[in-house]
Amino acid sequence: MSKLSNFAHPPWCLRGPDCAGSNDLHLSRLCSASVGEQEVLQLRVGLWRMDVGPTPPSGLLLELSASSEVERWPIGLAQSRALACLSQRLIRQLAPPPANPA
């Protein structure tokens, strides 16, 4: 498939060299989820969509890196939603939200 026109891009697509090439892949900017520079494992998250079939697969793109080693994992939309719900539930078990001062 040739390069897609602008109307076919999702609004979050960077439209860079990785966008809509031979695999019709759209990527968003990756947002860092790392709190500090001293962390051994760096985590960034973004969006992805691949234009294939009648319903394009899409979801979250997780990027994990430790020094120069970088791994990217595209997670499907259903798994992305489940991951969000499960993460919130598990984190609540670790640390309850702070009490509101009266």
- What is the 3D shape? globular
Order of helices and strands: EEEEEH
Number of strands: 5
Low-confidence runs: 1-6
The separation of the N and C termini measures 60 Å
Detailed description of the structure:
This protein has 102 residues and is α+β, with helices and mostly antiparallel strands. The protein has one domain (6-94). The chain is built from 1 helix and 5 strands. The chain has one helix at 77-94; strands at residues 25-27, 31-32, 42-50, 58-66, 69-76. Strands 1, 2, 3, 4 and 5 form a 5-stranded antiparallel beta sheet that branches. The longest helix has 18 residues, at 77-94. The chain starts with 24 loop residues before the first strand and ends in an 8-residue tail after the last helix. 8% of the residues are buried. The model is unreliable at 1-6 (pLDDT under 50).
Secondary structure elements and pairings:
Blueprint (H helix, E strand, L loop, with lengths): L24 E3 L3 E2 L9 E9 L7 E9 L2 E8 H18 L8
Antiparallel strand pairs: 1-3, 2-3, 3-4, 4-5
Primary descriptors:
5-stranded antiparallel beta sheet; about 20% helix; 1 helix; alpha+beta; about 100 residues; about 30% strand; disordered N terminus; single chain
Task: Summarize, please.
Helices cover 18% and strands 30% of the residues. It has 102 residues and is α+β, with helices and mostly antiparallel strands. It has one domain (6-94).
